[in-house]
Automatic annotation (TrEMBL):
Keywords: Repeat
Species for this entry: Gasterosteus aculeatus aculeatus
Entry GO terms, CC: mitochondrial intermembrane space
Family as reported in the entry's similarity comment: Belongs to the hcp beta-lactamase family.
Function text: Required for assembly of mitochondrial respiratory chain complexes.
Top-level taxon of origin: Eukaryota
Name of the protein this chain belongs to: Cytochrome c oxidase assembly factor 7
Length: 258
């Protein structure tokens, strides 16, 4: 059939991949025309009910840049070129997924970028406040870097860590819920008092989202009566859930290694 690629033909595959690079490059750079931008606010000051006024081309150019970086990374294994595209799409277009990926590059110095946790923190922060599919992951990373203090000259900032863990937890990121539980168990000399009720609340939520240690901690708290009246039945239920989740994780690891 016309238009289909014979992936057993090396020349045909090469041509297909070369065409992808041209297409994604065009979407990323050549279609970035300010004349196609559309104000999100109507001329009379009323905010539109939907974002239908945003042209499809805007979405294409932003995701085109992301696809171009994915192409350089996954197909060409050209991390330097991928990093340049990510930087462009994050800094010029504010595309959250690219900001997240650029932050990850800065964590390890991948693609020739400067290995710098402060820069990574800024990238994750920008991604967190976007609406992209990696925004919740980015919020968690902001929380992590604020929590351990490596991105702050003044050391750990528990208030900021809590803020972004809460944002990620609300978005369904289990590890953030678990970290919040740990924060409230330990407390902090800078103003966060231990609060076992809050600790249990977040451990419960982490467990609901499939976090093994969230279930284990919540089980222990119900058993001991930390932050709640003792409840042996609930403790046992959560203990069994922790065991089941642990078993699933082991099964996945075995299948992955087969």
């Amino acid at each position: 059939m016309a238009g289909l690629v014979n992936f057993e033909d090396e020349k045909e595959v090469k041509q297909f991949l070369d065409n992808l690079e041209v297409e994604y490059s065009f979407q990323c750079y050549k279609e970035n025309d300010p004349e196609v931008l559309c104000l999100l606010e109507a001329p009379d000051g009323d905010v539109p009910v939907s974002l239908g006024c945003v042209p499809h081309r805007i979405s294409m150019l932003l995701s085109g840049c992301q696809r171009l970086s994915d192409y350089f990374e996954g197909v060409k294994e050209n991390y330097e070129s991928a990093a340049k595209v990510l930087k462009h799409n994050c800094e010029s277009n504010g595309y959250g997924e690219s900001c997240y990926k650029l932050g990850a590059y800065h964590v390890s110095g991948k693609g020739g970028v400067t290995e710098c946790l402060k820069t990574a923190y800024s990238c994750f922060m920008r991604s967190c406040h976007s609406t992209g599919k990696k925004s919740i992951d980015a919020c968690h990373n902001v929380g992590l870097l604020a929590h351990d203090g490596r991105a702050h000259e003044g050391g750990a900032d528990v208030a900021v860590a809590r803020q972004y863990y809460e944002k990620a937890c609300a978005g369904g990121f289990a590890a953030s819920c678990f970290n919040l539980s740990a924060l409230f168990i330990e407390g902090n000399a800078k103003g966060l008092a231990p609060d076992m009720k809050q600790a249990l609340r977040y451990a419960d939520r982490a467990c609901e989202l499939g976090h093994v240690w969230g279930c284990a901690n919540a089980s222990r708290m119900y058993k001991l009566g930390d932050g709640t009246p003792k409840d042996e039945k609930k403790a046992e239920q959560l203990k069994e859930r922790a065991r089941a989740l642990h078993g699933l994780q082991k099964d996945r690891q075995l299948k992955f290694g087969e």
